[in-house]
Specification:
mainly alpha, 0% strand
Length: 230
């Protein structure tokens, strides 16, 4: 498995740097628009958006490189099984997501520090940045868990539309009924947090559910990939 880890790392280590600058170019105008109040929310949003975008870019690049160079077929000629290939990819993306979240946390804190210097006194918001970045990574990985078995079945070229769905679905928040339902759900979570006295139990449940979903997805992908006809 270490050889597969190294191969995936070699595949994305250079492109991730380019993606980093792309994400910053996209995120900067958004952060600039919401920074008028000079609160820690700007840093949380910056770190969360950066993390989610980078995690998706990492996955698209890995699976895209597999197909671009016929690495999928060549890899199976090595002394590895389809099951090991799937497990390595899931493990690599999970570790990559956590590493990206650490960078996203730093980006969020730096945004707040920049606001404090150039706009108005603003708390660094380290804990908020950590929660936003790692929460975003967990959500991104949970969504990937829903689509990766399909990717392993048909390939990234045919499954690429599934990665546009989260951004397309965000447009639904402009629809009144959807916005009201979402607002009601958020209010329920806020009441539950007030009852519990801390958001930690809620976060813990979300993490456990996402982890169970991720592992279950891996088992499904193993069977799917083993039956795939190249």
């Amino acid at each position: 498995m270490r050889a597969l880890f190294y191969a995936d790392w070699c595949c994305i280590r250079n492109t991730l740097v380019r993606y980093l600058w792309v994400c910053l170019i996209i995120i900067f105008p958004i952060v600039a628009m919401i920074s008028a109040g000079a609160t820690t929310g700007a840093g949380v949003m910056a770190g969360s958006m950066f993390t989610a975008m980078m995690v998706f870019y990492a996955m698209l690049n890995l699976f895209g490189s597999d197909e671009a160079g016929d690495w999928e077929q060549m890899r199976l000629t090595l002394p590895v099984t389809p099951r090991l290939v799937v497990r390595e990819r899931y493990a690599f993306l999970a570790l990559t997501g956590m590493a990206i979240a650490a960078i996203g946390t730093a980006a969020g804190v730096l945004v707040n520090v920049g606001l404090s210097i150039f706009v108005a006194p603003t708390a660094p918001g380290v804990l908020e940045a950590i929660g936003g970045a790692y929460g975003s990574a967990v959500i991104a990985l949970a969504y990937m868990a829903l689509v990766m078995p399909y990717v392993f079945k048909v390939g990234i070229a045919k499954a690429r539309i599934t990665f546009s769905m989260p951004f397309i679905l965000c447009l639904l928040f402009n629809v009144g009924p959807v916005r009201e339902v979402t607002r009601g759900f958020i209010d329920s979570l806020e009441r539950l947090e007030a009852t519990l006295g801390s958001p930690v139990p809620i976060f813990a449940v979300i993490i456990l559910v996402s982890a169970a979903l991720y592992v279950s997805s891996m088992f499904i992908a193993e069977r799917t990939y083993a039956r795939r006809d190249f």
